[in-house]
């Protein structure tokens, strides 16, 4: 730990635009810093992933269950934009993990490539952070017959 604090002190003493100042986030001629919360990156990544055709929903089984409950509560927040998205955000870089359900028939390899490209583009464009990795876990496939399951709607 002492070694880390020595490096941190050296970075603080470095001229503006180098060391600990994120080159993409801070203009060397400006005064102050810009901090981007992990929840902001989470939301951007979640929205960007959902924009791709073939992504049915985000999240694993438990988070999807809680999302379904939230949708049924009057005045509830509905579907969370950050469900199924985990991020690690540093000063200059971000790593993103996505859990998703895809539509049956979609090429998972092509879908993952498109999602990864869209998420990286959106996060880097909006935040200036370098996205070093986007890990995608496909947890389920949505079958067309799942929408018409008997018993899902009591009123016809």
From TrEMBL:
Residues 1-11 have a biased composition (Basic and acidic residues). It comes from the Bacteria. InterPro entries: Asp23. Residues 1-30 are annotated as: Disordered. It holds the Pfam family Asp23. Belongs to the asp23 family. This is Asp23/Gls24 family envelope stress response protein.
